[in-house]
Write a structure and sequence with these properties.
alpha+beta, 7-stranded antiparallel beta sheet, Vanillyl-alcohol Oxidase, Chain A, domain 3, Uridine Diphospho-n-acetylenolpyruvylglucosamine Reductase, domain 3, 5-stranded antiparallel beta sheet, about 475 residues, Glucooligosaccharide oxidase, 14 helices
């Protein structure tokens, strides 16, 4: 602990920790920013009033009560991969509950339901499910992302078209609410809170434990990779449109997930097919996906997860850096026309990027994610077929040219295709003017009502979280 002056909050937190090492730290600790705060986006400065590392749900409850008594806002942090550092509060002076010590895991070998601690990273989720019956769930590719944030905001990944999002696997949670109570929430118990936690969790409580349904690991997995270098991005328009035609096909095999990734040196199209090579060939996808400098690898589930983690490391993953990120969610009727695709590629060709490290990623969605009704969970992008993500990374600092470049990519697409800005809250954008409507759209009014019931004083707060009484 640091030598922070005694305050009602520090006295309360110190009493909860009761002399335990690595339980709480304050800004006067010389290693506070490096080892406790550990900002993901170095471009956004933030200093929490304290960072706590509870070991049990009761610790979380007691910490929440300390915050309430001192009228301090709270944010839980799992992996800490918020693009806007919202797991640290997003603004100075909030109390962080870092769930790193909540690592419990168990598997019910009868139901194949797994219980997972709220601080578990996705790499550990994969390993523990594998070691306990060769089971799996859908989740993203970055190994350092924590399930506590991932499964409460959406949790999209290559297997989501087949199995749904990560949050679609959540059957029940243990959650600490704004009065410090430890509750269970599911479709039959505290169902309104459960609705909110599945898509907007950071504004409604601290989940200490997840109960999730699991699937048998796929036996064989086909990894497809197409790479291309070229003189101008405008030359890519036919390739992009071919890929886009494939992913908007309503009959596209759900066992297939894919991304179209543009970066300074060219383009990479990745594909993951959860099946055998014969099933891959029979799916019809090889006849429709762009061909050229293609790599095709047959692997097992763990091998593919490891490869996807390596691919993800190319852009962000666990890297702490200064970066800007923008995104857009598109329905089938909003995908890029040939004219729009040409404008986007010409824009990228002609503008000053400000950095050599940038990415524009088009990511296929739909499939099983779209089977669930829009009003079944807080996650509101069931009707989306594709996401666009733009990243620009500054070494060592971010400049305005890079910010403008990434913003311009999304603006160029949106101006020709989308009337209402919608985007996935997992790709959080701190510059959004009407963020809550963009993230939660038709579910926002319901979320505002639930917030008024469960957290009327807005204890669980970041700059873009749901507010009590919020309306669309």
């Amino acid at each position: 602990m640091g030598q922070t002056p005694s305050t009602p909050l520090s006295d309360c937190l110190n009493a909860v920790c009761n002399g335990r090492d690595n339980c709480v730290a304050y800004p006067d600790d010389p290693l506070y920013q490096v080892t406790w705060v550990n900002r993901y986006n170095l471009d956004i400065e933030v200093e929490p009033i304290a960072v706590t590392r509870p070991e049990t749900a009761q610790d979380v409850s007691d910490i929440v009560k300390c915050a309430v008594a001192s009228s301090v806002k709270v944010q839980p942090k799992s992996g800490g991969h918020s693009y806007a550092n919202f797991g640290l509060g997003g603004t100075d002076g909030e109390l962080v509950i870092d769930l790193v010590n909540l690592q419990d895991f168990s598997m019910d070998n009868t139901t194949w339901q797994a219980t997972i601690g709220g601080g578990t990273k996705l790499s550990d989720v994969t390993d523990r499910l594998h070691d306990n019956g060769k089971r799996a769930i859908a989740h993203g590719t970055c190994p350092g992302v924590g399930i506590g944030g991932h499964a409460t905001i959406g949790g999209l990944g290559p297997s989501s078209r087949m199995w749904g999002s990560c949050l679609d696997h959540v059957l029940e949670v243990e959650v600490v609410t704004a009065d410090g109570s430890i509750k269970r929430a599911s479709e039959t118990e505290n169902s309104d809170l459960f609705f909110a936690l599945k898509g907007s969790g950071a504004g409604f409580g601290v989940i200490t434990e997840f109960v999730v349904k699991t699937h048998p690991e796929p036996g064989s997995v086909v990894q497809y990779s197409f790479s291309l270098s070229f003189a101008k991005f405008e030359d890519l328009v036919p390739v992009f449109l071919q890929w886009q035609d494939l992913i908007t096909d309503p009959n596209l095999d759900r066992r297939f997930g894919t991304e179209f990734v543009m970066y300074a040196l060219g383009v990479v199209i990745t594909g993951t097919f959860y099946g055998t090579e014969d099933e891959w060939k029979a799916s019809g996808i090889p006849d429709k996906i762009p061909v050229g400098n293609v790599s095709l690898v047959i692997d097992d589930w763990l091998g593919v997860v490891a490869q996807q983690a390596e691919d993800a490391a190319l852009y962000l993953s666990d890297l702490r850096s200064s970066f800007t990120a923008k995104s857009l969610a598109l329905r089938t009727d909003e995908v890029l026309s040939q004219d729009t695709a040409t404008q986007v590629m010409k824009y990228i060709d002609g503008v000053d990027h400000g950095s050599l490290i940038w990415f524009v990623i088009f990511d296929a969605s739909g499939g099983a994610v779209s089977d669930i009704p829009m009003n079944a969970t807080a996650y509101s992008h069931r009707d989306k077929i594709m996401f666009v993500q733009g990243y620009g990374i500054g070494i060592p600092t971010l400049n305005q040219d890079t910010r403008d470049f990434i913003s311009g990519v999304i603006t160029t697409i949106r101006n020709d295709t989308v009337e209402t800005l919608t985007t996935y809250p997992g790709y959080v954008d701190p510059s959004l003017v009407d963020a809550q409507a963009s993230y939660w759209g038709p579910n926002l009014k319901t979320l505002g009502e639930i917030k008024s019931k469960w957290d009327p004083n807005d204890l669980f707060h970041n700059p873009q979280s749901v507010r009590p009484g919020e309306t669309a």
